[in-house]
Amino acid sequence: MRRDEKLAQAAQNDVGQLISVLMDAARLGLEPGTEQYYLVPRWNKKKGCTEVTGVRGYQGEIELMYRAGAVSSVIVEVVYDADKFEYRPGRDERPIHEIDWDAKDRGQLRLAYAYAVMKDGATSKVVVLNKGHIAKARAKSDSADKNWSSWNTDEEAMWLKTAAHRLTKWVPTSAEYIREQLRVKAEVDAEQTNPATPTLVYRQFAPHEDLNDEGPIDAEFVED
């Protein structure tokens, strides 16, 4: 806040709102004032002043995915005009993205994409966003037209953040996922430790017996 006069003023305008934002960052386990969790001054029409708003950055979104424990890696990238990018859903498991690192100018931002590799090696849904998708996301920001907005000061990061945020719809990001996995594992371990042992009953039918009766049939499991 000492480095950002507008942010400091927004914090002074509503200290309670600032505390609420910091508590949200603490709950998520993300560091405020970084690319994990942005602190952004936002104009509040009702109050007639700016206040501090917390916005999860793309690094924060990725951190939450890793922390949930379901993924082994998360890939979030942007594509420029000079890059080669190929991806056909249903044919390609993952995008093919080639960059000419010797190019002096890669051109303008064209696409953003994100996907995760799960612990079992499977690939999550691949999210690909074009300029139209990004424009819609930007339009939802109240401060996108401000000079200090991240949409203007760090546009690439906002493209990455938008792609990462869309991926969270398809990849677990909550610690509840870990708790659920541990609960299921505990139940499975308990069943393996104390299995219910069924009794196998064989019956030899005589030629005249009615096979439609309600008695046990051949090789039927009957619980003790």
Radius of gyration (Å): 28 Å
* Share in β-strands: 15-25%
Low-confidence stretches: 199-224
State the major sheet.
Answer: 3 strands, antiparallel
Q: Looking at the structure, what is the overall shape? A: flat
Which strand order does the major sheet show? 3-6-7
Mean pLDDT: 83
Helix content: 25-40%
What structural category do the secondary elements indicate? alpha+beta
- What is the chain-wise order of helices and strands? HHEEHEEEEEHHHHEE
How many separate structural domains?
2
Number of helices: 7
Explain what the structure shows.
- This protein has 2 domains: 1-56, no CATH class; 57-195, no CATH class.
- The chain is of the alpha+beta class.
- A hairpin with an 8-residue loop joins β6 and β7 (127-129).
- The termini are far apart.
- The strands form 4 sheets. Strands 3-6-7 form a 3-stranded antiparallel β-sheet. A two-stranded antiparallel ribbon has the order 1-2. A two-stranded antiparallel sheet has the order 4-5.
- Helices cover 35% and strands 23% of the residues.
Essential attributes:
224 residues; alpha+beta; 2 domains; three-stranded antiparallel β-sheet; two-stranded antiparallel sheet; 7 helices
